[in-house]
């Protein structure tokens, strides 16, 4: 008897996909957006969808399940971490005092990701709120070359960094989800 889940996918059209194209909220069949800003925003939106898809259908315990010791990484921890970094990115683009950390001490986003419904609900709400706030702050600066904040970070650099952060963590989410219930697919 083994505790390792069998690998599986929900997709029936392409065996390496997470879901069938008709069920995929990421629009990859249409015409790509026009312009650099729209393209960057489209990539960010699709990675955000991917993270949500990797977490869908799991209960709080599964979302909080750690990868392998000594790592504290979990899908729930990733949700909390991305909420924390969305907030931190707003600190980069302002001259005001930094916003406080959402979860307190360093690594609390992962360390305190426990498998109860209230923690899961709060994490999803935190992420949605922080994403909306960062999106709104950047919407006021459509010039990708504009430099913001104390360090003069370009809007383009911030958008690309956000995409990179989500893409990296979607890779982690792939492995975490497979470890939880065996589901695979890009």
TrEMBL record:
Region Disordered: start-end pairs: 1-36
SUPFAM superfamilies linked: DinB/YfiT-like putative metalloenzymes
InterPro entries reported in the protein's UniProt record: DinB/YfiT-like, MST-like
Protein name, per record: DinB family protein
Lineage, uppermost ranks: Bacteria, Bacillati, Actinomycetota, Actinomycetes, Kitasatosporales
């Amino acid at each position: 008897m083994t505790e390792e889940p069998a690998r599986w996918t929900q997709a029936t059209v392409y065996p390496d996909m997470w879901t069938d194209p008709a069920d995929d909220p990421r629009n990859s069949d249409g015409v790509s957006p026009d312009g650099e800003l729209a393209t960057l925003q489209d990539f960010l939106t699709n990675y955000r969808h991917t993270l949500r898809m990797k977490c869908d259908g799991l209960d709080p315990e599964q979302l909080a399940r750690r990868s392998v010791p000594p790592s504290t990484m979990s899908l729930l921890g990733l949700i909390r971490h991305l909420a924390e970094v969305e907030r931190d990115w707003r600190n980069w683009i302002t001259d005001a005092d930094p916003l406080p950390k959402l979860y307190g001490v360093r690594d609390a986003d992962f360390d305190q990701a426990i498998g109860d419904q209230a923690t899961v609900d709060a994490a999803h709400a935190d992420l949605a709120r922080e994403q909306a706030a960062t999106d709104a702050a950047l919407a006021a600066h459509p010039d990708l070359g504009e430099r913001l904040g104390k360090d003069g970070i370009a809007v383009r650099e911030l958008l690309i960094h956000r995409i990179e952060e989500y893409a990296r963590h979607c890779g982690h989410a792939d492995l975490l989800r497979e470890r939880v219930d065996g589901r695979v697919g890009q």
